[in-house]
Amino acid sequence: MLQLKQLMHKSLLMVIGSALLALSTAVYADGDKASFMPDIPEPKDESLKCVQPEDEMKKNHMEYILHQRDKTLREGVRTKQYSLKECINCHVEKNSTARFGDDKHFCSSCHNYAGVTIDCFQCHADRPSSNNKHSQSTSSFPHYADNSVEGASK
Amino acid sequence: MIEKTINFSRRIFVEKTATAVAGLSIAPGVFLNQVAQAKPADQAVTSDVRWGMLIDTNKCATGCTACVSACNEENGIQSHNRPATDQVWIRKVKLRDKQTGHVTSLPMMCQHCEHPPCVDVCPTGASMKREDGIVLVDKHICIGCRYCMMACPYKARSFAHETVTDPKEYAPRGKGTVEACTLCVHRVDEGGTPACVEACNAAEHGAMIFGDLKDPNSEISKELEKHGGKQIRADLNLNTGVRYQGI
Ligand code: SF4
Asked: Which member of B38, B79, B164, B226 has the greatest number of CB atoms within 10 A?
C-alpha cells in the first residue's frame, strides 16, 4: 500500500515536471523575449562603454549615483562619471517622447519590470534638454568612452 | 554692528592670505591660479572663497523685473496663478519713505547668511551651507516640514506645492520640498555668474555685482571697501552674503 502511494507520488511529480518543461520550451520557442525579460533600450551610441562594466552597473548603479549626489550637492564636485545627468544624456534621446514611467524609458524599462519604485524623476529631468551643455555631441570629455578620463575614483 | 561683522570676515581673509603667501614661496602661482579660474570639476568647494552679491538700489529700476524673469527662466519656476503659494526665489520689493516720498526698489532673495537660521532649525540636515557660503536645500532629505521657511527673516524660501513637470536638468525641483535661491550654484561652479546678475547687466541697469567677498581684488570687495554695503536686518548678526547700497 505504502509502495503504491509512493509510486503515485513519483509519477505525479514527473507529470508536473514534464508539463513545466514543455511550457518553458514553448515560450522560448515562441521567442517572446518581452514576457520574460525587460526590453531595455540601447544607449544612443553603442560604441561607447558605460562608466563601469554592465554587470556592475546592473547591480550597483544606485550606489554610484547616491555617492555622487552628496558630493555634488554638498561639495560642488561636478565630475560627470557617475552623474545622473550623464546617465540620462547617454541613455535617453533628446526630447524623447518616452518619459519616466513608460516602459520605453531606459530607467523605467527595468524598474517597471522589477517593480522597484524610485523617486529620482520627481525632481530630476528624465530626458536631456535640447540646449544641453553636457551632451555627448558637445562634450570635450566623453567619459563614457574611457573610464579613466574624469573623476575615476568612486 | 555692520562694521563689526565685516571686520570679522576681513580678519578671516587676512589669515587666509597669510597662508596663501606662505604657500606661494613653496609653490609659486598655485594659489593665484585658483582664485582666477573656475575650480576643477573634481575638487570640492572650499572656504577660501565666499560668494556674495552687492545690490545698488539706486541703480535698480522701479518696475523692472528682469532679474525675476531671468531667475524663473533659469531655474524652471512656473507660476500656478496662485500668488499666495507660488514659488518665489527672487522678488522685487518697493520701499517708500513716508517722510520724503522717496521710493526704493530692490530685489530680495536668499541672503546666503554666514549663520543661516534655516540651517539651525532644520531637523534633517537638509538645509545646509556649502563651504563657499552658498545656502542650499538638499531636497533628497528634505521632509517638507517648512520650519526653515518660518525661521528665515527674509521670507526667502518657498514650498513646492505642485508636481514639477520638466525641471531643468541642472536645477532639480520637486513637489513636497522647500526651495530658494541657489545663487545659481550650477553656474557658479563653472565660473559663471547668477542669471539675475546677468539679466540686470543685460538690461543695462548694472545694479547687481556678484563675486568673492574674500578676494580683496574682486569687483564686489573693492566696491564694498569704497562705498560700503548694508545688510538687511543687520541686528540679527547673520552676516549676510547679499549686501545693499542706498538703503
Ligand atoms: S522643510 Fe526641508 S529644509 Fe526646511 S527645515 Fe524642513 S526638512 Fe529642513
From this structure: B164
CA–CA separation, B7 vs B1, rounded Å? Answer: 10
- Identify the residue whose C-alpha is closest to ligand 1 atom 4: B148
ipTM: 0.79
- For residue B173, give the nearest of A123, A40, A110, A16 by alpha carbon: A123
Q: Is A45 helix (H, G, I), strand (E, B) or coil?
A: coil
The residue extents of the domains of chain B are 2-245
Q: Which of B245, B233, B220, B209 is nearest to B9 (CA)?
A: B220
Arithmetic mean of pLDDT, A40-49: 77
Output the pLDDT for position B19.
Answer: 42
Question: For chain B, which ranges sit under pLDDT 70?
Answer: 1-37
Average pLDDT over residues A98-127: 92
Cα B245 to averaged position of ligand 1 atoms, centre (Å): 31
Cβ pairs A/B, distance under 8 A: 60
* CB of A94 less than 8 A from some CB of B: no
Confidence (pLDDT) at B188: 96
* pLDDT tens digit sequence for B47-64: 999 999 999 999 999 999
Exposure b/e, B55-80, CB count within 10 A at least 16 = b: bbbeebeeebbbbbebbbebbbbeee
Look up residue A63 and give its amino acid.
E
* B114 contacts B214 by C-beta, under 8 angstroms: no
Instruction: Supply the pLDDT for residue A26.
Output: 45
According to CATH, the topology of domain B2-245 is: Alpha-Beta Plaits (3.30.70)
Contact in structure between B150 and B141 (CB atoms under 8 Å): no
Give A-chain residues touching B43 at CB under 8 angstroms: 77
Distance CA A131, CA A148 (A): 27
Chain B contact set for A79 (CB, 8 A): 41-42
